[in-house]
Task: inverse folding
């Protein structure tokens, strides 16, 4: 059996042969003439001349072998409803949706925006666009849909999709009720009930959702039988070690952190359980994924940093298939944004990282999240992880705020697992792991306790908006915020400290 290292090495050293083999795993309407055209670095053209169809690969080609097998299960706790579709039934619905779209004048190459909650019809429309050849952007609920579709943002069910081979993958949505202090609907065990009821093998979610669950009664994690669950994958924000340890021990299941970006379309760093069952290190997304030639570079010299030293996470081009290949209509902007931070050609993720002597990577946060405290450069992610070590803290956000003496000071906003009776006492206790792990220089100026942190709908904490409020500035564009009330909590916490 191939090891991860052998598999990965082939993807870098024998790039074209490797991806030609991977291309055999999908259906091609017409074969490609060239695996890779890299004649104009850093622009990469993969599978030149080939034609394939997303809808056919996702659905049509599976109907013959397992037409009666469940392909999509829609579950809504908002309206207490559930629907299941076999591959055969889903194909019929998609054909119907494609016919409807054509009757509306949608044709190949058109850009289609789908504004609806995550209901079965949304999946039909996505696949129907692929069948027609239309280019689609999808908006589920939230601000954009609310302004266009009469506020449908509260209807956010969970979605389970049966993957090739029969393993069911779920991406439950973080319901607003999970971050409210009011009772959770239906309860904090809803995910694990879905796992039990549908024999789920693989689940995908975000660290921020797990941190929310840390506030709930741990009994919910033991309420349902989750023995079918092989892996829980988490992505969206760096997974801190305390949260990684907590969910792994609570579930008794393997929890895999994987790191990627919107621009890459798929993970950059992850464990590879399908290739080799490597050990998981808490707080680490493990190793580079095949196709990504990952380097940690010194921010000033651009030279590779040794193990144990912090560097900027970069990728030597060409980027593998599926990654962003340019900015639409603006090649120059693509290069200037992602490939100009170093003298050599390197895609910058704009994230700090560190690699240990075993080859495991750890993400330390955004390069612009580094704060300068009296000449010491500190990563806010490192301070957050230290705060999260306190057993009473569910999650935390740290930002740097202007200070007339030290230049900047870290300021922490923490969500406690239970109501805080003595905030001063807990604040003092929270400082202790920071002092122990990072030294007194990293100690936050203050720790504000709030009920929830402002996040986007995809689970990313709005640290820049928090920083702006802390410095008395406008919080900026908030169109992606999940709950505007979270920023009001930040304002109130800051105000109560100054009066």
Result:
């Amino acid at each position: 059996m191939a090891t991860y290292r052998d598999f990965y090495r082939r993807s870098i050293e024998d790039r074209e042969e490797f991806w030609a083999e991977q291309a055999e795993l999908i259906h091609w309407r017409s074969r490609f003439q060239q695996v890779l055209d890299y004649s104009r670095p850093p622009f990469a053209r993969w599978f030149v001349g080939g034609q394939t169809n997303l809808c056919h690969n996702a659905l049509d080609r599976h109907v013959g072998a397992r037409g009666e097998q469940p392909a999509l299960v829609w579950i809504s706790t908002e309206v207490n409803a559930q629907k299941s579709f076999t591959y055969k039934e889903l194909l019929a619905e998609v054909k119907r949706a494609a016919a409807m779209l054509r009757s509306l004048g949608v044709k190949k190459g058109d850009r289609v925006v789908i504004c609806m909650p995550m209901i079965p019809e949304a999946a039909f429309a996505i696949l129907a666009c692929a069948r027609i050849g239309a280019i689609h952007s999808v908006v589920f609920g939230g601000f954009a849909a609310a302004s266009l579709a009469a506020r449908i943002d509260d209807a956010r069910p969970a979605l389970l999709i049966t993957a090739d081979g029969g393993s069911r993958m779920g991406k439950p949505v973080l319901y607003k009720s999970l971050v409210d202090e009011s009772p959770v609907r239906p309860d904090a065990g809803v995910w694990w009930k879905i796992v039990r009821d549908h024999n789920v093998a693989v689940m995908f979610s975000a660290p921020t959702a797990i941190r929310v669950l840390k506030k709930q009664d741990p009994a919910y994690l033991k309420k349902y039988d989750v023995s079918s669950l092989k892996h829980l994958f988490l992505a969206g924000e760096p997974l801190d070690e305390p949260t990684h340890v907590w969910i792994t021990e609570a579930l008794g299941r393997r929890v895999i952190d994987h790191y990627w970006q919107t621009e890459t379309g798929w993970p950059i760093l992850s464990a590879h359980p399908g290739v080799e069952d490597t050990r998981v290190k808490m707080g680490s997304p493990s190793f580079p994924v095949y196709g990504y030639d990952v380097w940690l570079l010194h921010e000033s010299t651009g030279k590779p940093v040794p193990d144990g030293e912090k560097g900027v996470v970069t990728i030597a081009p060409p980027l593998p298939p599926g990654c962003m290949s340019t900015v639409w209509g603006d090649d120059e902007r693509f290069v200037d944004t992602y490939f100009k931070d170093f003298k050599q050609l390197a895609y910058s993720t704009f994230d700090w990282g560190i690699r240990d002597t075993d080859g495991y990577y750890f993400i330390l946060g955004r390069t612009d999240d580094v704060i300068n405290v009296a000449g010491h450069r500190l990563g806010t992610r490192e301070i957050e992880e230290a705060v999260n070590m306190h057993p009473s803290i569910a999650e935390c956000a740290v930002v740097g705020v202007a200070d007339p003496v030290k230049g900047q000071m870290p300021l922490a906003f923490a969500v406690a697992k239970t109501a805080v009776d003595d905030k001063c006492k807990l604040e003092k206790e929270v400082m202790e792991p920071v002092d122990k792990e990072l030294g007194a220089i990293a100690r936050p100026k203050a720790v504000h306790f709030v009920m929830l942190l402002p996040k986007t709908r995809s689970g990313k904490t709005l640290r820049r908006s928090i920083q702006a409020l802390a410095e008395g500035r406008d919080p900026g564009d908030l169109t992606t915020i999940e709950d505007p009330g979270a920023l009001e909590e930040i304002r109130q916490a800051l105000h109560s400290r100054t009066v």
In short: The first strand starts at residue 34 and ends at 40. The chain is about 30% helix and 25% strand. The first helix runs from residue 4 to 13. The radius of gyration is 24 Å.
